[in-house]
Amino acid sequence: MALFIGIDSGTQSVKALVLDIDKGRIVARASAPHSLISGLPPRHMEQHPQQWTAALDRVILKATRSIDRSRVRGIGVSGQQHGFVPLDAGGDVIRPAKLWCDTSTVPESDWLNAKLGGRREVIRQTGLPFLPGYTAPKILWLKRHEPRNYRRLRHVLLPHDYLNWHLTGRYSMEYGDASGTALMDVRRRRWSAAAIGAIDTNLRDWLPDLCDSSVPAGVLRGALARRYRLPLDTVVSAGGGDNMMAAIGTGNARPGIVTLSLGTSGTIFAYSRKPVIDQKGEIAAFCDSTGGWLPLVCTMNVTLVTEQFRRLFGWTFAEFDKGVAVAPEGAGGMTLKPYFVGERTPDLPLATGSISGITLQSLTAPNLARAAIEGVTAGLRYGLDRLVKHGIRPREIRLTGGGARSPVWRQIIADSFGVPVVKISEDECAALGAALQAAWCVGGGSVARVAASVVSLDESTRCRPGRKR
Question: Which residue of 29, 30, 260, 425 is most buried, as measured by CB atoms within 10 A?
Answer without folding.
Answer: 260
